[in-house]
Write the structure tokens for this entry.
Amino acid sequence: MKYAREHMPEAADEVSDLVHYYFGATRAGEGMDPLEFKWDAYKELDARGRLLFVTAREDNQPHRLRGFVNYFMHAHMHHRQVLATCDMIAVHPDHRNHGVGSYLMDYAEQWLKAQGVTHIVHNFRLIYPDDPLFIKHGYKAEETSYVKDIR
């Protein structure tokens, strides 16, 4: 597997295909509205240097996206922290449990730290039966989010 930092807007079709497949093949889509990517927003964040996108591609088929993670980088609004919030981490179901997600997270963490990020935030949807991958990487639960659909 080859891991690299890329520009997410340039991989929009591949990302969309992988996420749609992932949502259909896993529990990721349960309780969620249909996917609708805001590519202009990703492009703007990327242009401002506020988006990290790390990919996993097969060595012998570099055109095949097998996983990715992306983070939004921003200043904390009332502390001296620089945060990176994970927007999405996705690994093709055929490549899960082979260390791809862990390597994506490790790669991203090293890059984010070099950019001055002080804290990384990952969210975890409670629909999944397993513990989140983040625990294995030293993350600890600090807050609980509550969501209410007010449509």
